[in-house]
Amino acid sequence: MIHEPARLRIMTLLSGVADADFNFLLSALGLTKGNLSTHAERLERAGYVEIVKSFQGKVPHTRYRLTSEGRRALGGYWAMLDGIRGLEGRRGRK
Amino acid sequence: MKGVQVSDVGGMGPVDAQRVAAWTRRYLQTRTMGVLIFMLVFLGFVASVTGLNALIVLAVRQGNHWLLGVSIAGEVLWVAAVICFSVPRWGGRLVEKWTGRYYEKEGAATLPIPEKRVRPKWIVQLAVAVFGLCILGSVALGFAGMISSDSTCMVPLSAAYCVPFLVFLWWWMRPLSGLLGLLWPALYGLHAILILAGAPILFTGPYQGLNMLVPTVGYGLFSALVGHAYNRFALRRLQQSARAGI
Predict the structure, then answer these.
(1) If both were cysteines, with which of A15, B14, B34, B223 could B183 make a disulfide (CB 3.0 to 4.6 Å apart)?
(2) What letters, b where the CB count within 10 A reaches 16 and e where it falls short, cover A20-51?
(3) Domain count, chain B
(4) Structural domain includes residue B195
(5) In degrees, to the nearest 5, what angle opens at C-alpha A39 toward C-alphas A33 and A45?
């Protein structure tokens, strides 16, 4: 789930903030609107991201927040990646 | 996750994630457009009132009643506008609206505030009250003739309470404000020290009014401009690091 580059970057970006809106993720990541929506919904279904939809006046406003489960999963993913890199490094030295 | 190739994630690792988080924080901490707009509007008001004052003097000298009437009416309107703009409910909301429009395409994000950083509101209320008392006190002492109204005395005196207040505001806003937020009080303090040391940086004659305007609005505007320039740079670096490998 997290390994997909766009989803990994959405989660990485959200890990550094309390929450972020749709335009922030769009401008930082440079994804298309459809692509971002699809990936964010997948992350929401996995329980990694919480999506809050509201209105600012008449304009729809969507905010994203990394859940504690998402934070744990991302931390685990980085630990696993570090492990793989360490393994590759040891193999390379042999 | 069996068979994961490190290259599959475009070389992104925990260090890159930290870089993304760092540039996100720097970008969010330097969104100074609100301060910039506020300072520019304030400078516009000061310039307009100064211009209208000059017109009033000119009208009196020439005995031009029509020009005098128009200038006084203009000045009254501008002063009313300054008062309205100074009310946070009106001016603050207006600046917020303009700032929101500017950053609309870039979106918004909130930096996480650790629970231990949530401070009671009375601290800021007390600081604002002390700051207000200091301003009133220095003006009252000036009027009473107990301190010299000369800029050699007034600028360092104002720095004695403005610099701690600006540093307090920076501390209060942490972690929403970055180190660049200290540029304004640092310049203000340095300016005051240079005046005390006798450096020839004071304006004289008709430009005397600039002596207070430079450290207050001038350095504030300069700091906001530096912050904005850094903000553009931080946004580019954030985009580069966040998009790498997609």
Answers:
(1) B223
(2) bbbbbbbbbbebeeeebeebbebbeeeebbbe
(3) 1
(4) yes
(5) 130
CA separation, residue B181 to residues A31, B26, B35, B120 (Å): 32, 12, 11, 22
Give this prediction's pTM.
0.82
CA angle B164, B231, B226 (to 5 degrees): 50
Query: Domain limits at B214?
Result: 119-246
Which chain B residue has the Cα nearest residue A21?
A: B108
Distance of CA B196 to CAs B146, B155, B199, Å? 19, 9, 8
Query: Considering the domain boundaries, does residue B235 fall inside one?
Result: yes
Structure tokens at B226: 């530096």
d(C-alpha B227, C-alpha B183), whole Å: 9
Inter-chain CB proximity A29 and B28 less than 8 Å: no
B39, B235 Cβ separation under 8 angstroms = no
Closest CA relative to residue B137, chosen from B155, B157, B164, B152: B157
Residue of A nearest to B14 (CA): A78
Residue B217 makes CB contacts below 8 A (sequence gap 6+) with B39, B42, B43, B46
A vs B: CB pairs below 8 A: 101
Interatomic CA distance for residues A71 and A48, integer angstroms = 7
Distance CA B245, CA B10 (A): 4
Q: Which residue has the tokens 């300054």?
A: B82
Among B19, B25, B110, B117, most A C-beta atoms within 10 A, so best to mutate, is: B110
The complex scores an ipTM of: 0.85
Flag whether B34 is in a domain. no
Residue B155 lies in a domain: yes
Tokens of B95: 């600046």
Distance CA B201, CA B147 (A): 21
